[in-house]
Amino acid sequence: MARSGQVTEGIVRRFYADDYEFAISRLDGKAYATSNYCSHLDCLLSSGKLVQDGIGCSCHGSAFDLETGEPICPPATEPIKTYPCEERDGEIFVGIDPTEPPEGPRRRRMRSA
């Protein structure tokens, strides 16, 4: 998925794997993987920054818990998707459930339905 050195402490980066798009970050030495889209208005979380124990959205200030995806700061009220993340041999691996579709922009999906 990503090399460990690509995701330094306190940084959020965007990564792709097939149709999946992730925001991968590192906080207190641990790597985390979430959906790359804020549940409030689909802003890219990889454009945001880490705040306290979460990932912050640069558009309207929402923040989400890195472990659970639950919103910890409004205006977002819906959680984001989180993925299991493991580091080994200098690589970051993200676990996905192949039966679940890739998480993408929710509001755009609702408008086109």
Automatic annotation (TrEMBL):
Alphabetized InterPro entries for the sequence? Rieske_2Fe-2S, Rieske_2Fe-2S_sf
Keyword Membrane set for record: no
Chain positions covered by the region annotation Disordered:
91-113
Please report the stretch or stretches of sequence annotated as the Rieske domain.
1-94
Single GO MF descriptor: oxidoreductase activity, acting on paired donors, with incorporation or reduction of molecular oxygen
Note whether Transport occurs among the keywords.
no
This protein is called: Aromatic ring dioxygenase
| Species annotation | Rhodococcus coprophilus
